[in-house]
Hints:
Helix content is 37%, strand content 11%. The chain has 16 helices and nine strands. It has two domains: 6-314, Alpha-Beta Barrel (TIM Barrel), CATH 3.20.20.70; 322-419, no CATH class. By secondary structure, the protein is of the alpha/beta class. Iron/sulfur cluster is lined by residues 323-324, 327, 329-330, 333, 335-336, 351-352, 355, 358-359.
Amino acid sequence: MYRVTSFVLKTASRCNLNCSYCYMYNMGDQTYLKQPKFMSLETVQNFADRLKSYCENAEITHVQIVFHGGEPLLAKPEYFEKCIAIFKNTAPTLAYVFTMQTNGVTLDEKWYTLLQKLNIAVGISIDGPEKYHDEYRVFHNGKGSYTQVAKAIELGKKYNLRGLLLVVNINIPIEELYAEMKKLAVSSLNILLPDGHYDQAPLGLDVSKLHDKNYTPYADWFIGLYKLWKEDRNNRPSIYFFETLVKMIMGQEGIGNQLMGRRTNGVAVVESDGSVEVVDSLRACFEGITRNDINVHNNNLEDLFEDDTFQLYYRAHDEVTEQCLNCPVFDICGGGFLGHRYSEANGFDNPTMYCKDMVRLISFIQNDILNSLPATSVEELGVEPLVYEEIINSFEEESEIKIDPLIQEKLRSFKKELQV
Length: 420
Ligand code: SF4
């Protein structure tokens, strides 16, 4: 039984920026070139019809619709008015949460006014202080976009700016990054690990050090940021990444996302031609991995549940490599994002390529929480201090829990040469 309640609509397939790390344009997959530039209103209507029928069948009453791209604000303002009207007229009793992820470069007062009226909450992507942001988030002519983005963030304080999204760049000194967040008076921030896998190193990683047990550059970066954030008593921003980790360590259930935790991944993507697929960030693995023949013009949304890649993604925090099954932080880490586990040698039968970083980071935060609590609360919580080295060394020992051979075969069956 699958349950999808979040739908990412690729209303525009092109972008006015050309970010160097972008999974859509600059990593393994070029299939966006075959997509219409914008999702037609006919496609939106067909999707809304399929959504209504799916939600009725699955007894789903609340859905999230994310306007995404490319860059969604390349469409005209009337486009979004018409989209919202389509959704509300098609399924008036469905409770919608509308959000948009934009690069912010054209987000002016007029756009904010409209998006606020339509009740579309806005998230803006930023990569840190100007000199770092402008190194990666560039226009097609190579010019940086920081000035426009900072202006949109400033303007957003008056409107429905939901928060900022930042892809980790470990080359940014964390003090500079945190000062930037304070300068921009960010109220809410989410942080993503950069796309990459065992055959395509993400930004900032020194591949020659990967086998060094103590090489955890992402964890070191996150720990520095966590310390600054924790010590900030003056209106600190909400940082979803840390808050989720803390809640999971404290035993809260039912939280997590595709990066961590044990929840199922109930997210689907609708491309601008109406194709219904698994999340597009998996495209960083290899060309065509997300492709199937399912389209809102011909298929019910439930047809996606027959798709092998979707099935794997949906259960990605359950069907994991043997090392994860035996890992003491598995319930928090969940084996990481599926796309970060890929290698041509083993398909998805790997821990996340950020494995050591996750062990280090989770151990640090868990121990920090335990140290801040009275002994009686620690006992009630039933959580033990963690020793990084012990966990890393345990990965070399014989596993107690064995992986189901069928699951292992499935994880390994996803390989580039088999798909093309
Ligand atoms: S820390 Fe490593 S071994 Fe543990 S669950 Fe995460 S990816 Fe798997």
